[in-house]
């Protein structure tokens, strides 16, 4: 598989030999021996170069031989949809992904990835977690699941459509077969979009053969980074979410075994990863909209797109009914949106 393909979200597939080697060496911790972890990300090699590799390289350097994290890209050890269970079993030690894609068995997993219109900008995600209580809610939810420790959430890119044919109205979305996230797909189906699930490695070819009409999985930075800009012609400037929400997780036993200074070091490296993505995506989205040559920009008029946002708020209320904790998260989203709207520019422009 080429390094331009990134899986679930945005992936890549390793050789069979890589997977065999990894499973042949289960985790063993000898006294005074170097601690070795295996971390698998949702991202394939091309995307992983930005969203996680710099942070892991830094960790391994500063750990000074006490610990080493072996980084694996999407599907190299286990399929992304099985990452949570594999982490619980100790097959792998840590994960970087969104809650939804790894089938996390918690009620709030629906808010991972792209929850429609919950955010406008990438800074909204850390503010919601650090200042509005989502950290405590996520920690509570995962504390009810045996064997896994939720560590930290951060933001990625917005969710836009990359399509073969131009999208200039909601009518143009009807019948379009689109590769997207489960929750995003459930929402977009209200507008006639047909969500399609395919193996990551088939997406680019599926667009070329006409099996897919487009992708709603990323912003323009990833469209260029992973190669989707090579097979689609148009980029819709409207988005259904301003930032993807993803997290770091660890096997609870492995995490508890770490000495405190290595826990602190890992937390610092997670923060450095979150920071890197903030500027890489923010700059990339603007640069490629204005300087990119592979995709033509299209837009749905603001008044028409406002009906999509109104429908999203109905969707929020439906999700709030699924559990008291989900209701609490939705209430926080509403409080936050009201504060941002009242604050006005530059926090909100509408």
The named CATH superfamily: Bacterial extracellular solute-binding protein, family 7
> What is the N-to-C order of secondary-structure elements (H for helix, E for strand)?
HEHHEHEHHEEEHEHEHEEHHEHH
CATH fold annotation:
D-Maltodextrin-Binding Protein, domain 2
Number of strands: 11
Overall shape: it is globular
- Helicity, as a percent range: 40-55%
Average predicted confidence as pLDDT: 91
CATH domain class:
Alpha Beta
Structural class, by secondary structure, is: alpha/beta
Q: Which stretches are poorly predicted, pLDDT < 50 over at least 5 residues?
A: 1-30
- Rounded to an integer in angstroms, the radius of gyration calculated over CA atoms is 20 Å
DSSP summary: helix tally:
13
Q: How many domains make up the 3D coordinates?
A: 1
| N-to-C span | 43 Å
Largest sheet: 6 strands, mixed
For the largest sheet, list the strands in their spatial order: 7-6-8-5-9-11
Strand content: 15-25%
CATH architecture: 3-Layer(aba) Sandwich
Keywords: Signal
InterPro entries: DctP_fam, TAT_signal, TAT_signal_bac_arc, TRAP_DctP_sf
Protein name: C4-dicarboxylate ABC transporter
Signal peptide: 1-24
Structural description of this entry:
Residues 1-24 form the signal peptide. By secondary structure, the protein is an alpha/beta fold. The protein has one domain (36-343): Bacterial extracellular solute-binding protein, family 7 (D-Maltodextrin-Binding Protein, domain 2, 3-Layer(aba) Sandwich), CATH 3.40.190. The protein is built from 13 helices and 11 strands. It has helices spanning 16-23, 45-51, 53-62, 83-89, 124-131, 134-143, 182-188, 203-209, 220-226, 252-257, 260-291, 302-320, 324-343; strands at residues 35-41, 67-72, 94-97, 148-155, 160-163, 177-180, 194-196, 214-218, 234-236, 245-251, 296-298. The protein has a 6-stranded mixed β-sheet with strand order 7-6-8-5-9-11. Strands 2-1-3-10-4 form a 5-stranded mixed β-sheet. α3 runs antiparallel to α11 and α12 (302-320) packs antiparallel against α13. The longest helix has 32 residues, at 260-291. The protein starts with 15 loop residues before the first helix and ends in a 7-residue tail after the last helix.
